[in-house]
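In response to reviewer comment 3 from the previous cycle, which asked for concrete evidence that the modeling workflow produces usable outputs, we include below a single protein chain processed end to end. The sequence was submitted unchanged, and the resulting structure tokens are shown without manual editing.
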Amino acid sequence: MSSTILKSSKFSVVAIAQAIAQNWGTLKPYFLAAPQAIALAVFLVFPILLIGVVSFWEFNGFSMTPAFTLANYKSIFSSTVTLRTYLNTFKFVAMVWLATLLIGYPVAYFLSFHVNRLKWQVLLFLICTIPFWTSNIIRMISWVPLLGKEGLVNQLLMGIGLIDAPLEFLLYSDFAVVLGMVHLYIIFMIAPIFNSLMRIDRTLITAAEDMGASGFEVFKEIVLPLSAPGIAIGSIFIVTLVMGEFITVRLMGGGQAASIGKLIQTQIGSLQYPLAAANAMILLIVTLMLVFSILRVVNIRKEL
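The workflow returned the following structure tokens.
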């Protein structure tokens, strides 16, 4: 009996091996993608599912109980403070996106079209990344001696007579939070736009100029449309990073600014895990909606 089972098992293994060998060309991509898919499922999909489950648990202020309740979500949508925090987060996203685009696009354009030699393009691009060689916290703290009431900026402005009293909005305000985020994430807008601009066929621009197109018309009809995928990728980076930001809000806001990421951190610190999980799920859904909206407007497959 055992020998029969052993023979049948060997036959099954051989049959499976032969089937894999015959269809290796078709199965090869799946085997290559399997490790990444497994890691993605274990370390991303499964934790998100757990967060979704916890978001429906009951919490009485002292302990949480496995159950199914919509009380956590109802409390979020019925809280004026929470809704204002979401609006404040959207404001940060819009302001940081606009600032990084207005700063990052000219920088990427200059590197692509006004620096002719490749080695200088690479060198200048690396210079743009120098601030990102240090910790985010260190970079945030470095703004304090610059923007504080007794900081260098206020001392300079008072020294030349432009102001009579220190400007308080420079630090521990929404302005400081936006400035800190722009400082942190500007490279995520520059890099994809720079990549898009470098991939534009220069003969298209030459042909347009030969046909009498002005510099503005060349930019409007050729450069800007062909760089749109880079703008979209940079926008996705900015949106996803700013939506969950809490360290910059804490350090640069000084308790005067609020965001959903900071709210979730506070709820976790006070052991309100179901409520924090509910906020995390809403934040995830909103972020995905923004990302899908960007993808519907611009086709980024050209960059992939």
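Residues 85 and 259 are 5 Å apart (CA to CA). We consider this sufficient to address the reviewer's concern, and the full set will be provided in the supplementary archive.
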